[in-house]
Fold this protein.
Amino acid sequence: MQFVSGTSGNLATDVMMGLARYRHRVFVEMLGWPLQTHEHGLELDQFDREDTVYIVARDAINEVAGTARLLPTSRPYLLGEVFPELLHGEPVPSASEVWELSRFASVDFNAANTTPMGQLSSPVAVHLLRETMRVAANLGAERLITVSPLGVERLLRKAGFRAHRAGPPVIVDGHPVFACWIDLDTHERNLH
């Protein structure tokens, strides 16, 4: 597995197009999220900006096998703009050391058993999250905040990540979701 990361301005056009197609395939086609999409099956939203940082996992044949998006909480981001109720009245994070993780997925469409839960429990998902945490730490993050399905909490802990709820779960579109903190260890930082 190879990882590439950067903003839309410094990632190759084919990488950006691949991640937008992949996100459409995972979030719209597979999970059925009612997201606005662009022509040609591309999923990008108002949070895909010039300062958005992407992490893309690519397999041995250079196909996208996972994506993650990091947004600074000092600017508008998904939790703060769309799901602030998940914080149950607590202030929306806005700090240089807190970044939002969103559009995280790790589904290998070349594998025989591709399921929605596969995006959360595969070994690729764990490696992608570790790489995302490394990139975030290098950006100065000490914590990540994310909007996640409830089952993610157990999977994060099982994989050894320090994660905890920012508030109780809320039912959104018939599914329990919650705001989740993921603490970064200082050893996540690996400047090279």
Observations:
- The first strand starts at residue 2 and ends at 6.
- The CA atoms of residues 125 and 179 lie 19 Å apart.
- The beta strands are 2-6, 53-58, 64-72, 98-105, 143-149, 163-165, 170-172, 175-183.
